[in-house]
Amino acid sequence: xxxxxILLLQSLAxxxxxxxxxxxxxxxxxxxxxxxxxxxxxxxALAAGGTVALAAAAAITMVLAGRGWxxxxxxxxxxxxxxxxxxxxxxxxxxxxLRADRVLLARTLMRGGAYAMIAAVLATWLVGYPPQPVxxxxxxxxxxLATGLTWALLGHRGRRVLAGFAGLLAxxxxxxxxxxxxxxxxxxxxxxxxxxxxxxSVPAGGVPAVPVTALRxxxxxxxxxxxxxxxxxxxxxxxxxGERVEAWGFGGDGVAGPELRVxxxxxxxxxxxxxxxxxxxxxxxxxxxxxxxEDGVAGVTQDAVAPGERFIYRFSADEPGTYWYHxxxxxxEGVRRGLYGMLxxxxxxxxxxxxxxxxxxxxxxxxxxxxxxxGLQSFTAEEGESVRLRVxxxxxxxxxxxxxxxxxxxxxxxxxxxxxxxxxEHRSIRLGAGARADLVFTMPAEAVRFETDLSAAxxxxxxxxxxxxxxxxASRPREVTEVPELDLLAYGDGPRPELGPFTAEAELVLDRxxxxxxxxxxxxxxxxxxxxxxxxxxEVREGDVVKITIANRGFxxxxxxxxGHHVLVLSRDGVAATGAPLWLDxxxxxxxxxxxxxxxxxxxxxWMDHCHDLSHAAAGMMMTLAYExxxxxxxxxxxxxxxx
Length: 644
Known about the structure:
By secondary structure, the protein is an alpha+beta fold. 26% of the residues lie in helices and 31% in strands. Residues 198-204 have low confidence and may be disordered. The protein is elongated, with a radius of gyration of 29 Å.
């Protein structure tokens, strides 16, 4: 059984147990004499059912603890004690009630115990992991005050007593919400604090401060300049379906911005101009490990580029591969509307394939756009020639893609080559939001289709010259939805890199909790129980080898993207990666999964590490990988900055 299923089962058992005990408490009347046999049997049956359900919840909690403390921490330290207190309290109450002894107190204890059981269930959503002491205290106090209010109601203690308990309960709840709001107004935790993750002391005199603005490409950087100007502007796009949609873009008439193809060794100089994007824009080079000052994150490495302003990015194209660029200012809206484009760095000696297509996959106006447009697209390649498809998921949710009609191999993932991968057929590749894969195949005599699970109509067909590419394609059954996924952790082969011993460790526990985000209450996406900008950074020093563990407690997929670095996948759910070394910049963490990763801290700066479902990032799931001694003067909530 999956961890997600066990989490759901534990919650259902807890809810059932608390609900049955609460029903027992309300079913227990206030007879002058002993309760009737029917009444006793009803209450006892409800209590027995509740006890069995809570025992099952406790047993399942132990199973979860075996899967990882991240999944059971608050359930064991907060939930189980509350259940135990609730059972003892309700048990005493039911015994007294059956004897018609101290009936008022008995009924109060039965309901108060049920309140404690309800609190145990709520702890998962309110306390979270790691357990929050203030939230726990508020929860326990709420149980006590609710029990007091019940006693006052059942005992008809008068308006003054009722008002006292009700007022205290209201003050407690408002105070708890106020504390949460005040926590959101606290100073952000974006820079390193100096408390290194392996606990070593800071060198005497501290680490000299280096601003992010000093971590830019040197003026005397070598390489032939490849200059480009990208203008962010609103425009209308006519799709192949005939639909006209309003889009935002970086220039050109299509949905995506211009495809930037540069050659290894060149010096890229990209000038960003904002014509009329009111919220501002930036350029982030997704997956490309640029110097920190070129990373394009509003409020961290620069201010957003307002309408009429310009910002110039410079970096050396020294890593061949498939990448993309997009705004990192209010990106949850900007990328969705079209502020993205492809970046392809070709090897110095040129690409080996005869046909090389960059295919960003995007949804706009209800249509699925592959590359520049939607619908059927046709390309030609001679039989026997090699074809490379550079696929990018620019969406905010995972997609599946495949090549139907020819064996293909996965040549690269997230811009890094995969060694030793054999050609496969009838397999799909899952790409999390922001992820890339290079699919390579040899052109057969018949047409080949590139398919996604987003649309049956939007496909790319490659065929030899003179072959039919349109006939029958619309009615041809899709393969991508019928074939199994290829597990990239077991694909290819090659020696594991020797990174040396780990010098730092970090855990990221992903969850969904009620929190304040940007001063407003939200059912937020949290890391380690907190939301941006209050999530403690992963603090490193240059040269560190960091072991990062990511555990997803929630029911959403979280494609976690770290800027400025790639991570080496060590394991998933305790199973070691056995294929070619898999270096990723976007790790697609499904519900209940636990990933272990290695990161080499070789690019100083303050780097975002966030969920690339950008709606999740906007709702709190953003943090930083912060090098000691690096500072920023930019503010995440000033000058209109919105760094998601």
